Amino acid sequence: MARITASVYTSHVPAIGAALDLGKDQEPYWQPVFKGYEFSQQWLKDNPPDVIFLVFNDHATAFSLEMIPTFAIGTAASYQPADEGWGPRPVPTVTGHPELASHIAQSVIQDDFDLTIVNKMDVDHGLTVPLSLMCGRQDPVLGAWPCPVIPFAVNVVQYPVPSGRRCFNLGRAIRKAVESYDEDLKVQIWGTGGMSHQLQGPRAGLINKTFDNQFLDRLIEDPAGLAQMPHIDYVREAGSEGIELVMWLIARGAMGEKPPSVRHRFYHVPASNTAVGHLILESS
User: Fold this and answer.
1) What is the widest separation between alpha-carbon atoms in the chain?
2) CATH number at residue 177
3) Residues in CB range of 214: below 8 A, 6 or more apart
4) Which of 61, 43, 54 is nearest to 193 (CA)?
5) Of 102, 198, 230, 269, which is the most buried if we count CB atoms within 10 A?
6) Which residue of the set 59, 125, 264, 278 is catalytic?
7) Known catalytic residue: 197?
8) 278: annotated active-site residue
């Protein structure tokens, strides 16, 4: 059967992608950020998955404010990098895995989670920046991401957004779905977004290092308890965009009940007015 072997958690700051694309990754400002992923890039080469299930949020690219699904799973064979207003990122096309994605959709919907099925969409920095951080710079024509990717978009842009509890339980349902797939596949689930940041209003630029690191601690040690945190706590402590962290609970819920092994932990401030957080957890 297919199995989830590890989970990866990372911020998906758009400026990180721009720094990499423009060759600024060795500049003093950006060096500490990319250094934090050197271990991760080698780890991914040493532990290659067959499929990555990547949880992210769309930034009004595939979905406008006219139509925003709470949860949407990509079932297409490929996904083009999106033009977010300054041209598509110079990265490879993302190859999908329609068979596993369709199987997960069937299983999760039968477990009473409503998903939107997406057969065509472009993917923005929410998905491509994590791939760049974990895989390094890739030639947009000759390069390729290491394996197929299943995009899973979560609405954390327009309220109401899903609760941490629902996200955590959805992760459990995704694990059940993967394990019922009758092909021997190693699957990694990635949760992206966060950490503390606010992009507008009087608190623009807010970063809460204490909250961020406590979140990482609890994500590792007490995810079920962390899943009970109400939305107002995310907004109060981590800023209006800190709510993206509920997406990490989907990946954590998919890790099962046994305590995972922490392979890497990284946290850095600042990176374009936000905090960068990163974890790699392996199934024990």
Assistant:
1) 52
2) 3.40.830.10
3) none
4) 54
5) 198
6) 125
7) yes
8) no
